[in-house]
């Protein structure tokens, strides 16, 4: 079953068409990837899915329900969470606070019961804390619980950002270049990490990535975007040998 | 581990000691054993400034919205107390040029009711400003709130049958004890602290840190901004109401927009994002402004006339201080930290953290 | 109301609107480049009016010399404010720069109060500007008459600078993307200084025309026009020079029309600009001529 369906989406900025007639269907429980040279419109596609941009044309469906036009927070509530190309943590807050904040969207108590620490809020707060500690423990971040987010090493910051997205109870995780700036051994570790969380949290993962080794190794299906157009899709081997893909990458070799 | 428990115990004892000393000092002041009316007045004013400054810090320091409307919200609270608590018998004497609105002229409320009403009205007005403005970039909030502050003053000067116009309202019943000011300050600041440390407060901080990420984490930006902004306005209104009863009189010019800059100075000095810093700064600045008063009054110097000392110098010094603070001492006293016994002990024993850290401060 | 009176008020509205436009250009340019509300701009305008008072009344200079001195002094003040209050905070959080701007504004107001007292000062009567002329039954001062033309000429000059000159191109580059422009080797400091020079000189000219219209100057003279002109800039589309002028015209007209048609609400003339702001933000948040800006994610 497809969990996410991008139906004929076009996104124009003034005269520039960043994404043109994009059609993608992500299958539940899989790891799929969106690749393409710089400026191909990958992040724009993510921003359309998550509600940051309203597409000029077309719609996005999540679990069969149309989500185009919803604000990013509403879309996250439905179960799509994301990370950002240039890590966007709550820098001056602790690791634990970062995770707790991602739990806020599931809070039922209003601000008054929260402020006055009424019993039902306290219960929710306690559950949030337990759940967050468990999540941190699972991802081997618990030892960093009280560290300030921006003081973490780069790789841990990436990991924390993924953890934060998981804390929203997402079913679909969108990762925007999770391996950016990582060395080969860190990338290997990340690959394992992505597999683990997929299995552990029963996720569907849709990622943008430049590291071809990573993409080829873990993606069950790959989509290739060039100048806003989908030029190829299929398994790693299929895509690797596609003439148009080779051209697209050779043409902009210095960027890729 | 042993050490940790000891620290906790020490902190508890020190806290109890502090509360006892605080209560004792207020009681001594209150019963006229120490201090005089002037000291009591400055302390009461400081307590009010602490409420308003923390409310401003909630919006500016914790939620990252640049709001400059505190004076306007205070005016609403102050007028609510003024209009509804002056005894009915004295109304005609006060509204001697334009008679008071016949409906209002028959309503007298107990102080607490009028105070809360003022808070709620201020929050309501904040929602009215916030709903159109907070959907957009928060830059416009600065101008909209500064403008609102001015409009409120213009409106209150013009609706004479309600506010008595530029003449203002006198004979507002005063409070017999400092506990009214300090009690309400403790409750208000306590409330705001609990809010900030709740899940909602964390959401506010997330918005301050990174709006895009906060929204991606499912936080409804608009709802939380309006919430923070209107709760901030509520407590500014409460502060205004207390000011009315402290001075026993209100007039529109008490709430001229530069009044807000006092609170801005306080939160910058105390630390944007620090409640304890704000409280300390409230007392320092309020007392400081009183001390600086002598710069304005060459006559009080027993005939020695120094040409530099004349009306206006105090505010020049005030604005230079604000600029110096933000230019060279941007984090203020505490930055985003809160005062704790651990922090004080560390400070005293010279174990100062070398680098700026956030709450908790365990960074290597 | 007679048609005559209406025309008279129309001329007044256009003239007041042009004055607002002159100040609004300064706001919109600085915001375009630094994303900063230059709170001190209205106070620089106020100081320019005082400079004029001193040049003519205290130093008895002829008006044309005084104008040059006033423009020079105002430009110096504008650049000084930028160098001391804004430049050191260029990499600081936005809120700090805004507070510094408030501080600079407040300092200028308080300095003026301290140095010149809060008592209103009379603006010099410059005959070339205050002489009344009669055109088809309307009696207008020369200042009222020439203000719209001065504004349009200056608008043209500003557009010429920003569109046709090298420094103008740099200004546009910086306003589009500060970081990239910096990496491309554009001298940011020069661009910012130029912006403040243009903004401050327009404020100085505005102050001279303003004084001829409302010849009573106080330390807080700049506050209301300053707030209104920022609103004019938002109304026209912040960052857009022509938009700022359009916004200024609309605000000036609306204000005069309120006084003309609803004299009972004259007390609320200053409040109206903010009502307009709220309406604009509700209906078209990017302003009349503004482009939609999307933040990069």
How are the SSEs ordered, and which strands pair?
The complex is a heterotrimer of chains A (256), B (364) and C (297).
Chain A: E1 2-13, E2 16-27, E3 31-35, H1 42-49, E4 57-62, E5 65-66, H2 72-78, E6 80-82, H3 95-103, H4 111-115, H5 119-138, H6 154-167, E7 172-176, H7 184-201, E8 204-208, H8 212-218, E9 221-226, E10 229-234, H9 236-240, H10 243-251
Parallel strand pairs in A: 3-8, 3-9, 6-7, 7-8
Antiparallel strand pairs in A: 1-2, 1-4, 4-5, 9-10
Helix pairs in contact in A: 3-5, 3-6
Chain B: H1 2-30, H2 37-62, H3 70-85, H4 88-94, H5 111-133, H6 139-158, H7 160-163, H8 178-196, H9 199-209, H10 211-216, H11 221-247, H12 259-270, H13 275-292, H14 313-328, H15 341-348
Helix pairs in contact in B: 2-8, 2-11, 2-12, 2-13, 3-5, 3-6, 3-11, 5-11, 9-11, 12-13, 12-14
Chain C: H1 3-34, H2 41-58, H3 63-86, H4 94-116, E1 121-122, H5 127-130, E2 132-135, E3 138-141, H6 142-164, H7 166-176, H8 178-183, H9 188-213, E4 216-217, H10 223-236, H11 241-261, H12 269-283
Antiparallel strand pairs in C: 1-4, 2-3
Derived structural class of chain B: mainly alpha
The total strand number of chain C stands at 4
- CATH secondary-structure class of chain C: Mainly Alpha
State the share of residues found in helices of chain C, binned by percent. Answer: over 70%
The residue-averaged pLDDT of chain C reads: 90
CATH class of chain B: Mainly Alpha
Largest sheet of chain B: none
Q: How many independent structural domains of chain B?
A: 1
Order of the strands making up the biggest sheet of chain C: 1-4
Give an overview in words.
The complex is a heterotrimer of chains A (256), B (364) and C (297). By secondary structure, chain A is of the alpha/beta class. Chain A is 40% helix and 24% strand. Chain A has helices at residues 42-49, 72-78, 95-103, 111-115, 119-138, 154-167, 184-201, 212-218, 236-240, 243-251; strands at 2-13, 16-27, 31-35, 57-62, 65-66, 80-82, 172-176, 204-208, 221-226, 229-234. In chain A, α3 packs across α5 and α3 (95-103) packs parallel to α6. Chain A is globular. The radius of gyration of chain B is 22 Å and the shape is globular. Chain B has one domain: ABC transporter involved in vitamin B12 uptake, BtuC (Orthogonal Bundle), CATH 1.10.3470. The two termini of chain B are 20 Å apart. By secondary structure, chain B is mainly alpha-helical. The model of chain B is unreliable at 354-364 (pLDDT under 50). Chain C is mainly α. Chain C has one domain (3-283): ABC transporter involved in vitamin B12 uptake, BtuC, CATH 1.10.3470. In chain C, 73% of the residues lie in helices and 4% in strands. Chain C contains twelve helices and four strands. In chain C, the strands form two sheets. A two-stranded antiparallel ribbon of chain C has the order 1-4.
